[in-house]
């Protein structure tokens, strides 16, 4: 959900959050996002989030790192700066493996960290949800639900009533009243 | 079985308050005294590093044939200590052991700071530390490159990768809890600082989705990494021809010893920290029981390796090996280090067969100090004792450390302590989001 948020609600647990999403979906709403203190089991499936493609990025980076390291080692030892050490072969694969492995690990890890942050929209020190009163509880014990502004089916009175009936601790409307 | 990894079922809010509050509780006098001691030792370290750089490593006790001594012993000891941190945080995560949850950040912190100490020694040992970058490939105007068929560039790659990967793993796990501090810290200044490091984390579905996958992947990647690092360190020794070094048992022997000493240091640190910060409900006796079992297993692997070394020396028929392993180590000039090592690493640890001892924190703490000592002596055994009596009796020479050697070791202990004390004060060292999730899962299992 990249655009404006109009409705935010705080729930007391992951299960309540999931139930609320289903209730609002029953009212015809489709544009949801959820913010939780820890990963809630089943939430991704409920919001139909696709599997993360991060592992592919990590694999590509690890292969590039390892392959690049091997090539560099070969080029250093065989082409650019060959040193004859007791007549041992210049292109000596077993001796090239440790650095190749380490570089595969290093580049794979860098890719994992950077893509986890970038794909998750970080770093971004500001987000519309930070303007919502009480959103601080999201790292404590608050499970937050947000509905996007472009959700045509959103009706203020019904949605509020449904959320309150489902046990929402707090229902916040943002922007102009609809 | 997993029930008592968390005593009680505190609410999310209660966990949050308890575990974050370690960062804003007032400083206790004990902390200040320790900080002063560690600060003084850090100053000693800085002065001795300056002195070593100015005057050269002639200030150390190293001399041919003992070209490697305290510097490398300390390097191997410190880097080995780090391994338990990665073992707990990565390998136990992959194996889905939930008892790692409350102690993983603590041990990762230990890993990072231990690797920092380790890195100092090879740098200083170069004699000209300002040329340390020669270890890395860069297009030099001299047209030279590192010799990548030597074990030393492998070591440089392994140790620097290990540090960076540990740091990334640690930071990735930390981001949600830094956001927790951003939202909860008592002062505005703290909220701003933690907020910057939290990068704007808001726990959205997208963020958790990628975070979870990346965290598991990093754990999966760190698993072979931790096994590779000490293996590569051991190759520094094993690919030479020196009696006592030239052995195929070295990589697994080193890795087991590393995890052994690391678990010991975890115990040394976590027993007082748990008490000072009153974390008895999240770091329970079950954690200690399991860690003690790991120590016992690693102790047996070490014992097996000591026996295998002696057997292989005899079986090889190589008279230098036989002399080194069967005569010189147990009965020579340094025999007391050998027997102290055997006592600390093989005999004292047998107490842990008893469940009562595994849950007796005083016994565990004393034992952990003994193991730290024993593992340091093991590296002394491998490095100094092997080097001092190699092939020709005419080149044998005993080694004695100088005050600079001892001061540098003490200084790194202080610097490590300093970093660790700061870590305990400014970073939530029990992972909060993970604890809440574990509590939620435990509650669900109990309900089912």
Sequence-ordered SSE layout with sheet pairings:
The complex is a heterodimer of chains A (178) and B (448).
Chain A: E1 5-11, H1 14-26, E2 32-35, H2 43-46, H3 54-80, H4 93-119, E3 143-148, H5 156-165, E4 170-173
Antiparallel strand pairs in A: 1-3, 1-4, 2-3
Chain B: H1 12-20, H2 29-55, H3 70-94, H4 104-125, H5 151-184, H6 188-198, H7 205-238, H8 250-276, H9 285-316, H10 319-331, H11 335-347, H12 355-358, H13 361-388, H14 403-426, H15 432-447
Total strand segments of chain A: 4
Distance between the termini of chain A: 19 Å
Which second-level CATH architecture of chain B applies? Answer: Up-down Bundle
Structure annotation, total helices of chain A: 5
- Give a short account of the largest sheet of chain B: none
Runs of chain A in which pLDDT lies below 50 for 5 or more consecutive residues are none
Strand content of chain A: 5-15%
Give me the secondary-structure category of chain B.
mainly alpha
For the biggest β-sheet of chain A, the strand order reads 2-3-1-4
Beta-strand residue fraction of chain B? under 5%
**In the CATH scheme, what's the topology name of chain B?**
Formate dehydrogenase/DMSO reductase fold
Oligomer: heterodimer
CATH class of chain B: Mainly Alpha
The geometry of chain A reads as rod-shaped
Query: How many individual domains of chain B?
Result: 1
Sequence of secondary-structure elements of chain B: HHHHHHHHHHHHHHH
> What structural class do helix, strand and pairing data of chain A support?
alpha+beta
Give the low-pLDDT segments of chain B: none
Percentage of residues in helical conformation of chain B: over 70%
The H-level CATH homologous superfamily of chain B, spelled out, is Formate dehydrogenase/DMSO reductase domain
The portion of residues assigned to helices of chain A is 40-55%
Walk me through the structure.
The complex is a heterodimer of chains A (178) and B (448). With 178 residues, chain A is α+β, with helices and mostly antiparallel strands. Chain A is built from 5 helices and 4 strands. In chain A, helix 3 (54-80) packs antiparallel against helix 4 (93-119). Chain B has a single domain (2-136, 145-447), classed as Up-down Bundle (Formate dehydrogenase/DMSO reductase fold). Helices cover 71% and strands 0% of the residues of chain B. The chains are: A alpha+beta (178), B mainly alpha (448). The interface between A and B is large, with 62 and 64 residues.
């Amino acid at each position: 959900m990249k655009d404006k948020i109009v409705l935010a609600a705080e729930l007391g647990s992951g299960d309540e959050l999931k139930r609320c999403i289903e209730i609002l979906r029953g009212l015809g709403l489709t544009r949801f996002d959820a913010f939780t203190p820890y990963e809630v089991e089943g939430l991704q499936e409920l919001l139909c989030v696709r599997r993360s493609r991060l592992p592919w990025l990590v694999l590509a980076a690890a292969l590039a790192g390892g392959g690049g390291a091997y090539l560099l080692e070969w080029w250093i030892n065989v082409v650019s700066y060959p040193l004859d050490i007791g007549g041992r072969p210049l292109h000596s694969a077993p001796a090239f493996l440790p650095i190749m492995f380490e570089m595969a690990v290093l580049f794979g890890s860098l890719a994992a960290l950077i893509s986890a942050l970038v794909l998750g929209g970080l770093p971004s020190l500001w987000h519309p949800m930070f303007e919502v009163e009480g959103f601080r509880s999201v790292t404590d014990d608050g499970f937050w639900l947000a509905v996007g502004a472009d959700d045509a089916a959103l009706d203020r009175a019904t949605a509020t009533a449904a959320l309150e009936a489902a046990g929402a601790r707090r229902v916040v409307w943002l922007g102009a009243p609809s | 079985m997993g029930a008592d990894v968390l005593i009680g079922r505190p609410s999310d809010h209660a966990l949050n308050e308890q575990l974050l509050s370690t960062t804003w509780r007032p400083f206790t006098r004990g902390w200040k005294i320790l900080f002063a001691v560690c600060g003084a030792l850090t100053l000693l370290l800085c002065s001795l590093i300056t002195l070593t750089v100015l005057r050269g490593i002639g200030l150390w006790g190293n001399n041919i044939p003992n070209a490697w001594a305290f510097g490398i012993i300390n390097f191997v000891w410190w880097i080995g200590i780090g391994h338990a941190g990665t073992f707990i945080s990565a390998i136990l995560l992959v194996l889905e052991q939930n008892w790692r949850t409350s102690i993983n950040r603590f041990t990762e912190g230990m890993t990072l700071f231990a690797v920092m100490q380790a890195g100092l020694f090879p740098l200083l040992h170069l004699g000209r530390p300002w040329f340390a970058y020669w270890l890395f490939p860069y297009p030099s105007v001299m047209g030279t490159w590192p010799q990548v068929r030597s074990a030393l560039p492998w070591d440089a790659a392994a140790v620097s990768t290990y540090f960076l990967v540990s740091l990334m793993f640690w930071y990735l796990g930390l981001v949600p809890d830094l956001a927790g501090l951003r939202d909860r810290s008592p002062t505005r200044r703290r909220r701003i600082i933690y907020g910057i490091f939290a990068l704007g984390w808001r726990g959205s579905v997208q963020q958790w989705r990628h975070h979870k996958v990346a965290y598991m992947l990093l754990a999966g990647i760190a698993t072979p990494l931790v096994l590779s690092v000490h293996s590569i360190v051991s190759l520094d020794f094993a690919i030479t021809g020196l009696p006592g070094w030239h052995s195929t048992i070295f990589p697994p022997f080193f890795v087991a010893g590393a995890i052994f000493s690391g678990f010991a240091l975890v115990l040394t640190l976590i027993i007082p920290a748990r008490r000072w910060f009153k974390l008895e409900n999240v770091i329970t006796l079950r954690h200690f029981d399991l860690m003690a079992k790991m120590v016992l297993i690693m102790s047996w692997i070490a014992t097996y390796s000591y026996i295998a070394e002696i057997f292989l020396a005899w079986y090889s028929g190589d008279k230098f090996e036989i002399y080194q392993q069967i005569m010189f180590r147990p009965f020579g000039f340094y025999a007391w280090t050998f027997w102290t090592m055997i006592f600390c690493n093989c005999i004292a640890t047998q107490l842990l067969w008893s469940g009562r001892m595994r849950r007796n924190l005083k016994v565990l703490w004393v034992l952990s100090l003994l193991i730290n000592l024993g593992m340091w002596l093991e590296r002394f055994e491998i490095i100094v004792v092997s080097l001092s009596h190699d092939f020709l009796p005419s080149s044998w020479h005993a080694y004695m450390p100088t005050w600079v050697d001892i001061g540098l070791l003490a200084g790194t202990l202080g610097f490590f302590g300093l970093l660790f004390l700061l870590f305990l004060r400014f970073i939530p060292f029990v992972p909060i989001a993970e604890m809440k999730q574990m509590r939620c899962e435990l509650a669900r299992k109990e309900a089912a």
